[in-house]
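Could someone model nicotinamide-adenine-dinucleotide with this protein?
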Amino acid sequence: MSTTSDPIPHYNLYINGQWRAPKAERYQPTYDPSTGAMLAHVAQADVEDTQLAIQAARTAFDAGDWSGMLPAERARRLHAIVDAIEARQTEIADLEMRNGGCTWRKANLMDIPVGLIHFRHFAKLADFEAQEPVPQITFPALSYNLVRREPIGVCGQIIPWNFPFLMAIWKIAPALAAGNTIILKPASYTPLSALKLIEIIHETGLLPPGVLNLITGSGQVVGPELCNNPLVDKIAFTGSTAVGREIMQQAASTIKKVTLELGGKSPNIILDDADLDIAVDGSLWATFMHNGQACESGTRLFVPASIYDEFMNRLVTRASHLKIGLSEDGATDLGPVISASQLKTIEEYIQLGIQEGATPVLLGQRPTDPELAHGHFITPTIFTNVDNKMRIAQEEIFGPVLCVIKYTSVAEAIRQANDTIYGLAAGVWSTDIERAMTVANQLRAGTVWINDFHLISAEAPFGGYKQSGSGRELGTWGLKEYTEIKHIHVDLARTRAAKFWFDIVTPQE
Ligand code: NAD
Ligand code: MN
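Reply:
Sure, complex below.
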């Protein structure tokens, strides 16, 4: 897959079970956001390469080797693939950390092990009962009816840079489990863990050629072809709401099935009876995990006036002791953000917050440590006196910036929590579960955590209300997004429906 003569490896496209150079022979470097070091040159697919990958996936789907395989056999192969990935998980974790800038802890304790659990779950679900129960059909009375789940076909899948490995798993695992074929497009900043994943799967030899294809390159080039090409049946996209809108529009040209996992600005509501030890650290975790570069990050914190001073004192003290450092340092709490342009965006939002009249009780700055001079580092920001109408409270910053909103009535906090175009996730902190449940029921979000945050389960659905997306990932809900549903009606009464409409008398010859 990569040539070894060059000290900086070159990665090619993976099409129809083979590594091949892009037609135009174009490659782009990819970097380590902690150090700025160049890690690899990665193939840039153009429209023609994308069409080749689509054709390979189409041919593989239509041949039926994978789509028509017995579910138990598909499940067996997927389990063996997960075993192979598991055996090389430290290699993946290392790439995830270096290329994605996530901390050693996030890569090794969260993203890779969780990705394996999620893939394992879909391997199990692959052996599903395609036939679903159907209520007795009332008209016509005497018929036999089957309702069956079938794979959709060729799936174009586009993923972001913040959880490169996990997002690749969330896309390919349910699609493969349901019998589809795939063209996966990783984010331009972070292709390396997905390339490693494909290399490992390729070496198992368990997928027929063309079932799983990977093309790297610009989303603006590959995306429109995936969305418009009539040989593609479904588009699954995770990324920004702005690009999600474009994808939906383009997919309309051929009425593709579309699932979208988009942005968020999740509210995190502290109730006045919360256990402060848990709620303070939980709020830091909610917002600063991976520097706030998670779609579900709890970036709007609602704190009751009655406990405001104590809560904020503890929160700011704890936040100011978060350790900024290189990804590879096991003690690092906050690594770099993904890119220089993302860092600039974050700094612009901090300036905007000040202009809008919010108070930076903790002001994000570039660290002075010379070891961090070549990476994209910034310390955490906490804004108080935030009005939910401010742009810093409404727009997704995707950086370590927390907006704190003081409230006096819970009903008012809920109203403001819901006053957003997003609806991906929310948090509620309370020692009174009945109260917390009452709040959770009123929040317009796909996931609500009570006394926790960010925990995503293989078995439970994840996805957004409102402009946070369409459809769900994970669990049986996620699997079904990769199926078409078919009703087969078998007439048993021999009444011939046509007879109700036509009374045709054929003249005797
Ligand atoms: P992005 O939308 O810029 O890019 C996502 C992917 O889309 C990349 O692979 C990119 O190359 C590709 N792309 C870019 N332009 C495209 C186009 N015109 N057509 C098709 N594809 C195109 O997002 P990002 O900056 O990489 O990721 C951050 C965003 O993703 C945030 O908004 C975040 O909230 C969201 N996100 C959501 C979830 C979720 O599950 N809801 C998970 C992770 C990230
Ligand atoms: Mn982007």
